[in-house]
Specification:
Largest sheet: 4 strands, antiparallel
Order of helices and strands: EEEEEHEEEHEEEEEHHHHHHHHHH
Strand content: 5-15%
Strand order of the largest sheet: 3-8-1-9
Structural class: alpha+beta
Helix content: 25-40%
Number of helices: 12
Number of strands: 13
Distance between the termini: 40 Å
Number of domains: 2
Length: 361
Amino acid sequence: MDESSTTTYPQLAFLPWLMGVRKGDFGPIRLSAFERGNKPSRLRGLGQNEFDQALSIYHDHPGTPVDCAVLIEVDDWKLGQPLDAQIIDRLAQAREALCFGALSRRRLFCPNSVYCNSDNFRLVIAPLSRSVAYSARRRDGYSLNGWGEGEFSFSCPLHVHKEVIEVEAKLVKLIMSSPSTRWLDSVLEFNLANTDSQDAGLHAEMVMMKSAFERLLKINVTVDAFSDALELHLRPLLAQQPDDGDMRKRWDEIRPRSPTLMDAWARDFCAARGSAAHGGKRSAVPLGWSLAAHLAYASVLFPLLLKVLAHGEREYTLTDNDIRRVHFLEHYLAYQPFFPTTSIRQSHDHPWFRIEQAIQS
């Protein structure tokens, strides 16, 4: 999140790396469209020129200011009003909730599906002024830099592709309204493990992803605690017979004592996380899946697990679609998701896509 050095000026809050968000009821969060030279035209006393000016330093391409973005308001705070620390915290929470709501809608290895990552949801809080102050974190505190009009710009990261994103509104409202911080605390870690940034190594993402599960399940770091918690909460909803895919034999070979595919995966995931975190020889750990494969599956599992737990806490009601998706969770584990022909444009023969089709049918 970018935050101005002072909040005494009228402020804007926006997401520059989003083309748009499909309409939905997001509880205390209100979203509106920015289109350069067109929208929002005039909003609560602010003219189009003021919006165009505020977003002019954010570029889709070098020298090309963003044509579209998403404006955000929360609770009683409205665009153009000053900010206090409480509203800044709520805007940051809104960013995490929206991001998680979008990540939960991703369908991996599915051709022609809309894809996003957490860096799509960069939140900017900026004053309506022609100069900008920007703080940068340091190990010994922070530095504050100031620029005048036209002196600098921010470009959309190369790993971010702007899309019109669909967000799961029920999850957003859960995170924004829950009296407990449990969901938000775990979602913060999950979002950090899903940036797609080259600056975030897979080993670091594994550590954050495991931390997300620990916060969500309220467990310690041991593999038994992780596996037991997954079995406790998911087993009643899992299908009895996962597919006989290309990974079934491999799991039996490397985790012969595991009674289920979920247990085999949990132990493999923890071994991969431990290897990544503790700096040991990674080749010395017999892993069934690569770090990339583990992170892909964890990004499918985590949102569904959160829904199941929130359902148990009576803060969320599982839909028929949620139940079907949980039902098929072990089927993903029967297949190796990455193979030499895997690319961004997936074929319709990918096993995870076939599972998606089975869920829909």
